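Blinded run. Sample ID left blank on purpose so nobody reads anything into the name before looking at the predicted structure. Input follows.
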Amino acid sequence: MGMSVTISAATDLDAEQILKLQYLCYQGEAELYGDYSIAPLTQTLAELRAELGAGCVLVARLGDEVVGAVRGATGPGGTAVISGMIVHPRMQRHGLGGRLLAAVEARLAADGATRFRLATGHRNEGNLRLYRKWGYAQVATEQVTRKLTLVTMEKDVRHEDAQDDAQQEAASGARGGVAGAELAASR
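Blinded prediction complete.
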């Protein structure tokens, strides 16, 4: 019988595994844009540990192994910024990205978020497709380098949806299954 993937709050003990997974997952993004100096590849363990204490960081675990993570923080205007969503390459395209997104949205909505915002590279079709599927719409673009344009996407929080997502996440975690949506390796 296989192990179940569970989603829970990250702890300081997860920092090294998250950083290693982040490094693995963002290789494809760096290759896509020809830039290996992107922040996820240069972030230090100390910087990541600071993030763990500053906002909502969730991890997906397969046994003791961290196989996914996502970060979020709600700002003063009620807009929650979701970032750093990663899923181990062997776990992609099995719905884990959607489960992580639902879980972080539910947590942020419970903390008072009224809107969600995230960004991804313009060439990352897997991420763009996933976010559209979850109701996000493009609201802005920003050219970061000659090769990279960030696409910012948003959606309003509908509290009944957040409650439904939390209930679905709890049920999914209880079953231990991963099914459904797609996710590319990076945010």
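Unblinding after everyone has recorded impressions. The radius of gyration is 15 Å.
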